[in-house]
Amino acid sequence: MRNNFRKQREQDEEESVxxxxxxxxxxxxxxxxxxxxxxxxxxxxxxxxxPISPPLDNDDLRRRVDQTECDINGLQAxxxxxxxxxxxxxxxLAKIREIDPLEKYLSNAALTRSKILVALRDxxxxxFPNLVIEISAESDALRxxxxxxxxxxxxxxxxxxxxxxxxxxxxxxxxxxxxTFGEYKHWDEKVNPTSAIIEAVQIEGHTDSDGxxxxxxxxxxxxxxxxxxxxLQAAPRLTSYQNNHSPERQPVLSVAGYGKMRPVASNDTTQxxxxxxxxxLRIIMHTPRNLEEVERIKSQLKGxxxxxx
Length: 309
Hints:
- By secondary structure, this protein is α+β, with helices and mostly antiparallel strands.
- It has seven helices and five strands; from the N terminus they run H-H-H-E-E-H-E-H-E-H-E-H.
- It has a domain at about 100-300: CATH 3.30.1330.60.
- It has helices at about 1-45, 60-95, 100-125, 160-175, 215-235, 270-275, 290-300, and strands spanning about 135, 140-145, 200-205, 255, 280-285.
- The termini are far apart.
């Protein structure tokens, strides 16, 4: 009896396991069917027919060819207009970049003047380290404060200051032959490659605002004259150097007195007054009126034509 009961129990367990496995299999298959249905509904596509254009007849083809040729001609015309404008702009740009020969000559003359002034200043500073000397802001004059040459209110050079003036004269005597005409003209292309010409070397006297205006004019002129005379005593040839002035050449060396009329600093301070009491050695370059005159100057400097013509 017990054995029968055991067999019956084992049989029930086997049937229970079989039923469970069957249920799981059915459930799995059901899920798979659902997934397949989902993907089929979302990814199924219907083949769409490709539209086929109707065949073109000869008239349509001709019209399209004509339109294409018209478009090409329009593009070509635009390209030609653009190229023409580019050429015009390039010519304008080249004109802008082109340096006017006369302007170039004048610019080189100004640079030459600066070079001469620097040479004079550096030479004087080497010989007289304590001398108060500078180049003007416009780079056209060498400035010596008058205490460097004269006592306050005086117009006579002391023996010590005559040495300074003599050195200035000697330096000028060495430089002027390459930039002037006259008996001692000696143009050197290495020294003066741009053929710049000096119009004048002007010795200018200046004072501060103290004292009577007329007295200051006399004082400044007297100082300029004293400097001029001392320079000629040290270098007599200085009056032989001539400019290119027409119709007749003139000596480049000259004198002027300006009193208080050309201050370079404020007269409200002691330092400013000291700066205004000065001697200026101003170099004025010749300014040609046209390119023909520039070429004539170059020719004369090289000795290809008679001087004075």
